[in-house]
Design brief:
It contains 13 helices and 18 strands. By secondary structure, the chain is α/β, with parallel strands linked by helices. The chain folds into two domains: 169 residues, Rossmann fold, CATH 3.40.50; 184 residues, Dihydrodipicolinate Reductase, domain 2. α3 crosses α4 and α11 packs across α13. The longest helix is centred in the C-terminal third of the chain and has 19 residues. The termini are far apart.
Length: 375
């Protein structure tokens, strides 16, 4: 039986372990013994308590792997993936690190491995669809609106973090790169809010975040591309106030003779309020619009997703919609359906004939349904 090692036992890492455990030998590695014990009681997996911030321990964890899945926080992601590649292991990664993944391309080619990164919902499925349709039509505009939210809007933030909270804070800080009329434009995160209607949800608010990532380079022939994050109306204004006041800064300030980074205090106070309950209902909403020409005629593709917490499995929507594109891609690699060596963002996977269809079928079998319309 092929062995998959999952680095990270968080909410998404746990969902991926559950998804893979019936068909593969699965080892989950993390520093949190309690999380590992919970997973081991629920699923047929092995666990390893280890410090994934240390390359030697990452190397030891992946030694026997046929494929590695990276699910560590973003600030650890780049170095962790680098270590996995140095250990000559094929991998799929969802850590969404800030560094340029193509800095690892030469190393991955040298080690003759396939490394797919950013393989979640968005980035992830959005990239796959863009890569797929870029092969069959001439695209002039790509728009992606996406967000994960609790069903119950609790004051004061009306938000719960369905993935790593520190990565949510990073979304609110990192400048958003957008492509307008063939030019790269940089705008502040949380800027240009606009109301968006979602059937079954109501009015949400979309705002700029740095979600395009690799497609800025890999899809450079497309003149207009933007991704926006979705929240309930009012949330982003509160986060802008925190940011502009300095509460999200990592520059230490003197407080009674102690040097404290404001963001450390802010996260200590925010994260308990943002913690998603074990059985708390939440949803993932996404709308992708691709316009251009096909065979010389105007052509539009829309893809919509509204996925909800699954009470039968106890899996959150964001864990499933983020984790299962990753596990599906892992299966493609292990089956030999995707073989490109080097660093592969998901748009490269989507460009290979048949890959997007297989992933969509895989997700549908797990009750994650993308409604795609073309006109």
């Amino acid at each position: 039986m092929q062995k998959i090692v999952i680095l990270g036992a968080g909410m998404v890492g746990g969902a991926m372990a559950a998804d893979l455990s019936e068909d593969f030998s699965v080892l989950v590695a993390d520093i949190d013994a309690a999380r590992l014990e919970t997973l081991k009681k629920r699923y047929r997996i092995e666990t390893m308590k280890t410090d994934l911030s240390k390359p030697a321990q990452v190397g030891a964890a992946v030694k026997e792997a046929d494929l590695v899945i990276g699910a560590v926080p973003g600030f650890m992601g780049f170095r962790t993936l680098e270590t996995v590649i140095k250990n000559k292991k094929n991998s799929v990664d969802i850590s969404f690190f800030a560094e340029d993944p193509f800095e690892l391309d030469a190393l991955a080619l040298e080690q003759d491995v396939t490394a797919v990164m950013d393989c979640g919902v968005a980035p992830g499925m959005s990239n796959m669809m863009l890569g797929h349709y870029n092969e069959i039509m001439e695209i002039d505009r790509f728009t992606c609106l996406v967000g994960g939210l609790p069903v119950i809007r609790s004051w004061p933030y009306e938000y719960k973090a369905p993935f790593s909270p520190i990565d949510v804070i990073e979304e609110y800080l990192r400048p958003a790169r957008i492509v307008e009329n063939g030019r790269l434009v940089v705008k502040p995160a949380l800027s240009e809010p606009e109301p968006v209607e979602f059937e079954g949800v109501g009015t949400l608010e979309a705002f700029n975040t740095d979600g395009l990532r690799t497609v800025i380079k890999t899809m450079s022939t497309i003149p207009n591309m933007i991704e926006k994050t979705l929240r309930y109306p009012g949330h982003i204004e509160k986060m802008r106030m925190l940011r502009e006041t300095g509460f999200l800064s990592d520059e230490p300030v003197d407080v009674g003779g102690h040097m404290i980074a404001p963001v450390d205090l802010t996260t200590r106070l925010l994260f308990p309020l943002w913690k998603l309950g074990d059985e708390e209902e939440e949803f993932t909403a996404m709308r992708i619009t691709i316009t251009g020409k096909k065979n010389g005629a105007p052509h539009t593709v829309t893809a919509g997703l509204l996925d909800r917490y699954d009470p039968k499995t106890g899996m959150s929507s964001m864990a499933r919609t983020t984790g299962y594109p990753c596990t599906g891609t892992a299966r493609l690699i292990l089956a030999g359906d995707y073989q490109r060596k080097g660093i592969s963002p998901p748009e490269y996977v989507g460009a290979v004939p048949g890959c997007l269809e297989k992933i969509l079928t895989y997700l549908q079998a797990r009750n994650i349904v993308y409604h795609i319309h073309q006109s």
